[in-house]
Amino acid sequence: AAQTIAGLDLMITIDSMPAHLAGALGVPTWILLHSDCDWRWMQKRTDSPWYPTMRLFRQKNADDWLPVIGRVKQELERLASSRFQTTSVAAQTENRSPAVDSRCAARSPRFGKLGSRKPIMCARLIV
Known about the structure:
By secondary structure, this protein is of the alpha/beta class. It has 3 helices and 3 strands, in the order αβαββα.
């Protein structure tokens, strides 16, 4: 599990063992938290003192996940847009379309230069 998680550019999850493992490994992690979450997430924080690469997305009202998912979607679209622009520049430099680039970790901060390290898990995100 640790090797697979370490290969991720981002993990989006709930409060669970994989979330803590990702945080301990320094993998960027977004956690969706219930309004009455565990004490370790403290109150009214969007970050974690335990895991510097973690962002917390909290419910404001119990069982109301729609606003939480909306915030995650908005942030994910922003992130995907910035990464697509970087990937597009890299693909143009090498005369390839980003859509057919099988190395989707291209120019990712976790993987350095294009093709310098093979990702363990690779998936294209379409938002």
